[in-house]
Design brief:
The protein has four helices and two strands. The protein is mostly helical. It has one domain. Strands 1-2 form a two-stranded parallel ribbon. The termini are far apart. The mean pLDDT is 85.
């Protein structure tokens, strides 16, 4: 790459249906009303816990396979830094 150092940054997509659907299945929910009854904040925290658990597993598996990345600085789309940056960018477009 023309002599430039490259940074191999790993990241995890922490939001979206793939997380929510699996947590809903675990809890036996049939509709979004079930989530509301359960409590949105509690539900979101369960989703975050699922991401943390699975990202740790994926990280260890990837290290064992020899993936060479900056594992200590993986980014998570659920981080406050990411969310505030996205909000700030969206606000600029308004």
């Amino acid at each position: 790459m023309q002599g430039f150092d490259l940074r191999y940054q790993n990241g995890f997509d922490c939001q979206g249906l793939w997380v929510e659907v699996e947590v809903e299945k675990e809890l036996g929910f049939k509709s979004k009303r079930d989530v509301e009854k359960y409590g949105i904040e509690k539900f979101v925290n369960l989703c975050k816990d699922r991401v943390r658990k699975n990202s740790a597993i994926q990280t260890e598996q990837s290290k064992r396979l020899g993936y060479w990345m900056d594992w200590d600085n993986s980014y998570f789309t659920m981080s406050d830094e990411n969310n505030y940056t996205n909000f700030g960018d969206a606000k600029k477009t308004i």
